[in-house]
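[job 0412] stage=fold_complex status=start
inputs:
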Amino acid sequence: MNDRIRVAVLGRNGRMGSEAVRAVEDAPDLELVAALGRGDDLQDVVDAGAQVVVDLTVPSATRENVRFAVAHGLHAVVGTTGWHDDALAQLRDQLAEAPGTGVLIAPNFAVGAVLAMKFSELAAAFFDSVEIVELHHPRKLDAPSGTASRTAELVGRSRERAGRGASPDATESDPLGARGADVAGVHVHSVRLQGLVAHQETLLGNTGEQLTLRHDSFDRVSFMTGVLLGVRSVAEHPGLTVGLDGYMDLGL
Amino acid sequence: MNDRIRVAVLGRNGRMGSEAVRAVEDAPDLELVAALGRGDDLQDVVDAGAQVVVDLTVPSATRENVRFAVAHGLHAVVGTTGWHDDALAQLRDQLAEAPGTGVLIAPNFAVGAVLAMKFSELAAAFFDSVEIVELHHPRKLDAPSGTASRTAELVGRSRERAGRGASPDATESDPLGARGADVAGVHVHSVRLQGLVAHQETLLGNTGEQLTLRHDSFDRVSFMTGVLLGVRSVAEHPGLTVGLDGYMDLGL
Amino acid sequence: MNDRIRVAVLGRNGRMGSEAVRAVEDAPDLELVAALGRGDDLQDVVDAGAQVVVDLTVPSATRENVRFAVAHGLHAVVGTTGWHDDALAQLRDQLAEAPGTGVLIAPNFAVGAVLAMKFSELAAAFFDSVEIVELHHPRKLDAPSGTASRTAELVGRSRERAGRGASPDATESDPLGARGADVAGVHVHSVRLQGLVAHQETLLGNTGEQLTLRHDSFDRVSFMTGVLLGVRSVAEHPGLTVGLDGYMDLGL
Amino acid sequence: MNDRIRVAVLGRNGRMGSEAVRAVEDAPDLELVAALGRGDDLQDVVDAGAQVVVDLTVPSATRENVRFAVAHGLHAVVGTTGWHDDALAQLRDQLAEAPGTGVLIAPNFAVGAVLAMKFSELAAAFFDSVEIVELHHPRKLDAPSGTASRTAELVGRSRERAGRGASPDATESDPLGARGADVAGVHVHSVRLQGLVAHQETLLGNTGEQLTLRHDSFDRVSFMTGVLLGVRSVAEHPGLTVGLDGYMDLGL
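[job 0412] stage=fold_complex status=done
writing structure:
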């Protein structure tokens, strides 16, 4: 088929990269034209005729990879972390000179996690109370999770914009810290349980009603739905997009 | 306070109406200027200087109530059922002649239920599978619930727009009907359990991940959050709005 | 009907007592023969021919009420708090002299809460990880709830008996206390949310599986199921029983 | 270490068998002395000095395997299906002649699933309403699941013993079958969702309260907890035991 999108995967030996190689190969509308590991020559991507580069490498490599792609007119879908404000600003400058080229940088490619976060932010303005419970496997080193902290910050900002104060809370005695962490005015609770992977609930309450938004990530392979969505949509979104929700037509 | 919104409640003796009377009285930014029951004279509402009329009466009365309100330049917030297409068309015509006046007709005033339905519709486009479980007290006469059917229809339409077919399902043997109802291509399951009030879950699944949107309605008083939101916002929304989500600033 | 159980309720004006009056009246196999408030004469209970006394009074009155009942050969079902070890020991002594008489003292009459606690204790011996999440209305003054603390203690003791150590937990960084309280080696998390009443989850995890035991208390009336179970069963359980689970035939 | 239990695994190439080989090798108190596949000689198990045989083969082989084991004084832990009443009766006869030997036949080795089923049975006697929701991946061929049907039967029998009738249900109109299957008088609902593995909820309701018992099986490896429990306990349970709960000290 001539009109399949030609895709190159960078970081083919990593956990995410190897899943991406498989996912692109399995997708009937995509064609894997190159898959590079550490030390391979980026020029191969151009020679193979790639249209979209998927970067799932490491923070020390991702900036140069994306710079190279944009310089050669290739779109990029990036799941690597390490893009701080300076790096984003430089990339925006470069893209201003390459008007048809699109780059998506997404900290999370699980469609459900992205929606849960977005819906939490939207709903938080309409409820008296909001709290977050995140649940992970017991090998996790930090609490709360990065996703829970980001969700709490989005929720906190949304409530501020809506002129809402803190959730009501009459607690006078909590000697052992059962009420958990306070992140941006939102209580966050971290459960660690054998058997779990990565799960999060946003609990919202008004008088007489509750809204619960829960995301379960059972397997890393869930990220691939979002990577493929990115690959298929990046050409229609010139310039820089941060966050997969920018590609999800929520009518927002 | 001079700038409180002056509110009249129609249907003050009904279950919803009596809650609304109490809620308006309790709200510091609202003033209850009239509360009418069956047989009372609508002119009282005008004489009392009401700005917003809340109609929580019965299908046989609501059309005339709203017609009267609009004819006198009063905004209306309507929770009564019975507004079929003809009635809505006539109301739209009347409102075209009353440019500053707003009417909100909402089948459901529970903010959480409205958001759960909206989020279900939005998310359905991004998942392989969607099913709905609704749970109610065992005195309910019909299954599935009206809310579940409406949600399934919105979900079904959303998936059609996104070019998604039916959820995958290899079931070959189901002699007892355990797979539940099919509404607009979406499986709907109805649980009836002592102790429950009204609850609904939309379950969405992709490879490796699940998104769950759950609404619990514990008490009819939950509707008041939405009624008050309507009263406070109706003046800023001239013309006819159907559905509380039209007043919820989701960035839509 | 001659063979209905004749019941007296003490504390008829309290929240629990008034519910109990109604529940006894509504039960076809029970007959309410007396309902006493503060200051009424206990002798009325005897004169009315009561067989079972339900004590839902206050800590300062309950001991004398039960002493009086046992002295007159009446069974007692007690929901009042304030029974410390000394009081229980004295009651046991008194019951040793009244061989046919039964007393049930139960801190919690919600059948589901009692079972959730019992099942948590039983299951805890078979799982690598156990944590508890309790969720209450935001007017609650203390965290964690008494029920959650008691459950954690039962769980902790059960794990000790089974030779199980602490749940695995690699957390190195938790600057804000997201991991919650440690009660008897079990993490307990307290959520406070508008709209909720009293809810609790015990989460248990092994490699590849999770068991969740959740109890929702939507309304105080849930206690009546247990009170009636107590009234109907107390005559078959001579002596002192502490905890409603002593009357629940779990085959345990 | 001399006092490790010496274990032989039959069916080493199957999905369950290969997991069992790994689990026995990883357990410090067990020693894998033999692992047989199709066509291997059972005598190897005896020659290797096995004390416990784990049978995870196929229905056509399991009876002869267990007969051989018992004839040689070896304990057996059996996860293979296909043990109908006749086969069990013959095995009981054989075991009557081999007084010290124990055999465990378990249809389900996931500790959490076994407990969820047992707790459902116990709790069902104390609630007005019980329903079951099972959720599986969409490649499953039959609905409801075997585990859900068995749970419903246990629940139904438990309610019968307690003199409880059907759960209350006023449903008059259910044209699409949303109320699901009726198994032994218990409503069972089957959800099929991409991303899921095997999950089940028993929902129990009384006036004002709900008890939810949920089991999530995320990975087949969850069965190994039960297999190892069986291997470690079989010597202490001479004769035939059907069901892992017979080895779980619930105080039953």
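[job 0412] summary: Chain A touches chain D through six residues (CB under 8 Å).
[job 0412] exit 0
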